Amino acid sequence: MIKQINPGDIISYIEMCTQEGLSLQRGMNFRVNGGHSIFLMSVRKGAPYNDKVEDEGKTLIYEGHDAQKGWVKYPKDEDQPMTSPNGSLTDNGKFFNAAKSFKEKNNQAELVKVYEKIKDGIWVYNGLFKLVDAWVEKSNNRKVFKFKLEITVDTILQKVASLKTIKELEHNRIIPTSIKLEVWKRDKGKCVQCGSTDNLHFDHILPFVKGGTSLKAENIQLLCARHNLQKRDKII
User: What is the rounded CA–CA span in Å between residue 194 and residue 231?
Assistant: First the structure.
């Protein structure tokens, strides 16, 4: 049985692939198995693309992806492609058209599950977002795609009725990568209550809905699933 993951959960690459039921080799994955889409992001130093977290985690700016190796000689020197050499849409093109369709009020916003890489082999589930905009801009003498995503509750409630822990998204704000790494190092990758290294979660010591911040390491800690649930029960 595949365990339910919630925003803020720390998982391995294998767990992420198991959760989605496929081997995630690409950063952009449009309508996986006909359902939601998936973005794999990173804002770490040296990341291959310029992804950004804005507005205390409510908004993401995700950069499109380069041409596949074999299509062009130097992908980083070429414009990011809308179509492949055979004329079919790339994931850039699919997501761009989905954002355009939403802006023109032809369709609802595309739902995108976002996973963020914080260290090699270690990922955080950032939650479900809606794709609200897309554009092309100049970067280092070439054109790149940019995609704007906003965290949402209403759209998720309408389209993902099976998500039982939706209330968790009401207070979720993405913790900046620098804070995640600081907390991971400080807490030594273990639950601060019992020392467990399994089923970890970035927990707000003072909940976001009660005024707690995501922007200071002092308000974030690592908890295992058991102690996270115990704390939640006390708050509720």
Answer: 13
